[in-house]
Amino acid sequence: MTTNVTNVKGRFSAREIAYCGLFATLMMIGANVSSFLVIGGVPITMQTFFAILAGLVLGSRLGTVSMLVYTLLGLVGAPVFAKFSGGFSVILSPTFGFIVTFIMVAYIIGKMVEHSRTKTMYLAAALVGLVINYVFGTTWMYYAYKLWAQAPEGFTYKMAWLWMLPPLPKDIILSIFAGLFALRLRKVIKID
Amino acid sequence: MMDKLIFGRFIPGDSFVHRLDPRAKLIFVFAFIFIVFIANNTATYAALLIFTILIILLSRIKLYFLINGLKPILILMAFTFFLHIFFTKEGDILYHWKFITIYEEGLRQGIFISVRFLVLVFVTTVLTLTTSPISITDGMEVLLNPLKKLKLPIHELALMMSISLRFIPTLMDETDKIMKAQTARGSDLTSGPIKERIKAVVPLLVPLFVSAFKRAEDLATAMEVRGYRGGEGRTRYRQLKWHVRDTIAVLSIVVMGAVLIYLRKYS
Q1: Do the Cβ atoms of A117 and B39 come closer than 8 Å?
Q2: Do the Cβ atoms of B168 and A25 come within 8 Å?
Q3: Contact A80, A28 (CB under 8 A)
Q4: For residue A42, what is the enclosing H or E element?
Q5: ipTM of the complex
Q6: What is the pLDDT of residues A31-56, one digit of tens each?
Q7: What's the helix, strand, coil split of chain B in %, to 5?
Q8: CA pair distance A110, A105, nearest whole angstrom
């Protein structure tokens, strides 16, 4: 069932292509899960969760590619980003940085668990992913307001962070959950 | 949910812009993003605005859909506009009320930057409204072909994008079904402490992953059985054709760039 017929060096096998496409789709579901799922009045997105899973389950190479596919899909106009948005104009939106981090998150996390596949490493990697996501994404958002909108001195880095605090607890829990969940998923899919 | 998706982006039609080759449209939009930044005075911004209105008229897209595309950056636009109005302190005072003072230069800058955002968003939205994601993917694959020399897997990326697009409606239906099934079994996501609620997500995610992975496996098997071996020697079902109108579109953006440079210098 799980032999890679065409896995020439550097090439993608049919199975790898299918899984990358699949994870890009799962990101879309994760981004818009709030339209099906409202947890106690707070609409949640599970993009970070799925990006972390992509890194943990698919590894650095395929994880990065699947996140890249997701980003490109959105830019090309498929309504895959949060609130069913998409289109090239999203690149101007201050929160585009978070989408860029998903690519980095998948890569770095993938590298970490390829190094050692222990439960501790999975959890550590998931949390590192979350930190990258928040730090880089918030910094991007701050500079987006600074540069594109040419915001004056009154808008501080601290203010950008205050906006990001409310969803933080939920994302920490989801990241830990992603680490544990990925361990089980690895047993189900065999791509490498 | 599905209606939102169809509503979301591509609107089929038969206008001049619809019939353009996706490659021409991609080149056009990329060039447009750059020439927008040439504009620096009233004449250039007015020219950009007229050019954009012309494109919208040619695409025969209803204004409602364009405004919809504006939503993602509406906050940024409003933020920028008000920042410039309240914080720029140059030029004559236009309006004064208690601690609010509006200067001429502030209003001018606010309007310019808003117009820049507006034309960028409108033109990029016209691209995604008049071209189906599948044909943009096709166009991108062809345009990015030179990058294959750098060993970038352009064909594979395009294929993954198409696969993902195909999976979207299926997985959304699936998620919807699973949610309803678990609600019927008494799964409760709306009350209790956060920890309990996250636990309640598990019965949703497990069946979702099981069915998603099964689909990916089926697809991979089907591809292997049919002898998929990358882009080499592949023939295409959807053929791209370059027409005279595509050349005109690309030329028009070059002319627009020249006009902007002229207006920037001599007005």
Answers
A1: no
A2: yes
A3: yes
A4: strand A42-43
A5: 0.86
A6: 877 655 555 445 567 889 999 999 99
A7: 75, 5, 20
A8: 8
